[in-house]
Each structure stands twice: as structure tokens, then as C-alpha cells.
Write a structure and sequence with these properties.
Layout lengths: L1 E6 L8 E6 L7 H21 L1 H28 L3 H50 L3 E3 L2 E3 L1 H4 L3 H4 L6 H40 L7 H40 L4 H11 L5 H17 L9 H32 L3 H14 L2 H25 L9
Antiparallel strand pairs: 1-2, 3-4
Helix pairs in contact: 2-3, 2-6, 3-9, 7-8, 7-10, 7-12, 8-9, 9-10, 10-11, 11-12
């Protein structure tokens, strides 16, 4: 468009009429490339500086993705405001997490107290039988106290100011990240529709349909991933409950439920369940098998539950995720193991759907680069 503007002087006239364009001057190709490179460098720098925030943000997004169908269903059925439904669902979910955490902490605390008492009794027995008398090494008496200092000499070192400060710092930092996850998840549930449309608004003209199609494809991937994870958790919980019941572990059903719930944490969750089950077996013994030694029964529990986890990690998880996401089982296995070794549990938890999602974007870019319609070849 063009507009008319009065100028004080133009081509020798006292008052002339000048045509002034409203269109902004377009950037040259070199300018566009330079700005794009600078933006990419700046984005990479910001991501690197904010890398500690990526984990809590990913957890918040996962929680919001899981709870959003519940919120949408309740919103449609109950005919209540979405804000109220989000608040109710969110508070119910928090109460459930707190209850599960309280029960688990109670069990761990009780078993740990018993285990510590048993360990202290064993140490006293060792002290009385072996450490209170000199050892004869090549006919030379050696005092064991010189090799094993008393715990009373070591304990004060654990109460130094810097150690206490480090513990306090770690506790407050973790509490801060938990608060970030809680608040972020709430706002994602409350305004995800508006946030999604705001993101679509940044797409160039003519690419709105492509952006929405990519979004639906990626959302479908994550939905199938969580469905596969749910099936896997149910199978692992069932196998754990049945195995624990057969060998006579008290609370077999409870351990099956715990195995199903904590299975989403990959190696960390199952390790916690196995540790608790082994501690229970060590102090209770078997209710069905004629095993007189609690230690042997604890080793049996450890072996059975570890075998179930090996079966899950080597065969069940790769197969189920392969069928759910149409990806080769070897890719699933290698991606999870590599993520656990290099980046931790959180990355391993989402690495498989992330790989598939990135593959969708790369496939779209490939067809666009070669001037082909991606949706005809999808």
C-alpha cells in the first residue's frame, strides 16, 4: 500500500505530493542467513545456560500430557469451568503422589531401621569375636584397632559445617525444582490450548496446516508411547506379584503394585522395589518354601526380581515399544542403555519418543527439501 504525504519542498515546488510506501524494505539473502545463524547460536547458548531447567520442564510437560486427557474428560462430562476441573484433578493427583510417597517412605524407614539394627548387631559380633583380640601374622601380634578405627573417631567428621551446608543446599535446591514442576504443570494444564494456538501463530503464512499436522503426528507418538508404557507396567507388576507369591514373599500383591508404579523410572524405580523386597525377605523369611535361612531367601528374592527386570529390559520393553512406535527393538534397547549411561534416568525415560518425534520432523524436512508433498508419502 502507498499513502500520500505533504513535504515542505519537492522538485522545486512549495508543497508537493510524495508517494511513500508502507512496506518494509525486505532483507537481502545474506542478511537473512546472518540473522538465522545468530539466532541459532543465541538459542544454543541459552539452552546450554538453562540446561538445568530442561529436566524440570520435561517432567512438567510429561505430567501435563498425562493429566490433560483426565482434565478434558472431566471438563466435558461435569460441565464445570476448566480452571476448577484443573484444580480438582491437580489436587487429587498431588494427594495420590504424596500418599504413595508417604507409604513408600514408611516402608523404607521401617525396613532400614531393622536393617541398621541387624547390621549393628553383626558389627558388635565381629567386634567381640575378631577385633577385640590381636591377630597373629607371621607370629607377630597385630592390633585390629590400628587397621579399623572406631566409628566414634569417624563420626565427628560427618558433622563438619561444610558437609551440613552441602546437605542443606541440596535439599533446598531439590525443593525448588519440585516447586517449579508443580507450578509449571498446573499452568500447562490450565492454558495449554491458548499456548498451543500462540505457538501456531508464529508459523509463516501458508504453513499453519503443516504445523498442525506435525503437532498431531507427534502427539500421536507420545500417546502410543504412554500406552505402551502402561502395558509394560501392568505386565511387570503382574510378573512381580506372581513371582513373589510363588516363592512366599510377604505382601506379594503390594510389591506387584509398587513394581508397576515405579517401572516408569527405569533402573532407579525397580532397584528401589528390589531393595525393599530383599530387606523384607531378610527379616521375615518365606511363607511357602522350606528355607530356614532368611539370608538364602533374601538372595532368592533378589535373583527372581532381578531376573524379571532383565526380562523386561532385554525383551519386553524393546518389543512393546517397537510395536507401539514402529521402531526397531535394537534401537529402543541401545537408546535406553546409552541414555542411562550418559545422561541419566530422565533422558532415558523420554529418549524413545523423542527419537521418533525427531524422525517425523526430519522426514517432513526431507520431503520439503526435494519439493515433494510430505503428506502424500507419509
Amino acid at each position: 500500500m502507498e499513502r500520500l504525504e505533504r513535504s515542505g519542498y519537492n522538485s522545486g515546488k512549495q508543497f508537493g505530493i510524495v508517494l511513500v510506501s508502507d512496506m518494509s524494505k525486505p532483507w537481502s539473502r545474506s542478511t537473512r542467513y546472518l540473522v538465522l545463524i545468530l539466532l541459532l547460536i543465541l538459542s544454543a547458548f541459552l539452552l546450554y545456560r538453562a540446561r538445568a531447567l530442561l529436566g524440570p520442564m520435561a517432567v512438567s510437560a510429561l505430567l501435563a500430557f498425562i493429566l490433560n486427557p483426565v482434565v478434558s474428560f472431566a471438563h466435558e462430562r461435569m460441565k464445570l469451568r476448566r480452571a476448577l476441573v484443573v484444580l480438582l484433578v491437580y489436587l487429587a493427583s498431588l494427594a495420590g503422589f504424596v500418599l504413595i510417597g508417604f507409604v513408600v517412605v514408611q516402608v523404607i524407614s521401617q525396613q532400614t531401621t531393622s536393617l541398621v539394627a541387624e547390621f549393628q548387631a553383626m558389627l558388635r559380633q565381629i567386634q567381640t569375636s575378631y577385633l577385640d583380640h590381636p591377630w597373629m601374622i607371621m607370629n607377630i601380634p597385630v592390633q585390629p584397632a590400628l587397621l579399623f578405627p572406631q566409628s566414634s573417631e569417624i563420626a565427628p567428621d560427618l558433622l563438619q559445617a561444610d558437609v551440613i551446608f552441602q546437605i542443606f543446599q541440596a535439599t533446598t535446591t531439590n525443593f525448588g525444582w519440585i516447586l517449579v514442576v508443580i507450578v509449571t504443570t498446573y499452568y500447562l494444564l490450565l492454558d495449554w490450548g491458548k499456548l498451543r494456538e500462540w505457538l501456531f501463530g508464529w508459523l509463516p503464512p501458508g504453513y499453519d496446516a503443516d504445523g498442525r499436522r506435525l503437532y498431531e503426528e507427534i502427539r500421536h507418538v507420545w500417546r502410543r508411547y504412554f500406552q505402551g508404557q502402561l502395558r509394560l507396567s501392568v505386565i511387570v507388576g503382574f510378573l512381580t506379584a506372581v513371582g513373589a507369591f510363588i516363592i512366599g514373599l510377604p505382601g506379594a500383591v503390594v510389591f506387584g503394585i509398587l513394581a508397576a508404579v515405579f517401572d516408569v523410572l527405569l533402573s532407579v524405580g525397580p532397584a528401589i522395589v528390589i531393595a525393599i523386597a530383599t530387606a523384607v525377605a531378610l527379616f521375615t523369611g518365606s511363607t511357602t518354601l522350606p528355607i530356614t535361612s532368611n539370608l538364602l531367601f533374601a538372595l532368592l528374592v533378589l535373583a527372581v526380581l532381578s531376573l524379571i527386570q532383565m526380562l523386561e529390559n532385554i525383551w519386553l520393553r524393546p518389543r512393546i515399544m517397537s510395536n507401539s512406535l514402529n521402531i526397531h527393538p535394537a534401537v529402543v534397547f541401545i537408546a535406553i542403555i546409552a541414555s542411562l549411561a550418559l545422561a541419566g534416568v530422565l533422558t532415558a525415560l523420554v529418549i524413545v519418543p523423542v527419537i521418533v518425534s525427531v524422525g517425523i520432523v526430519v522426514k517432513y524436512i526431507y520431503f520439503k527439501l526435494f519439493e515433494m508433498d510430505p503428506w502424500e508419502h507419509w
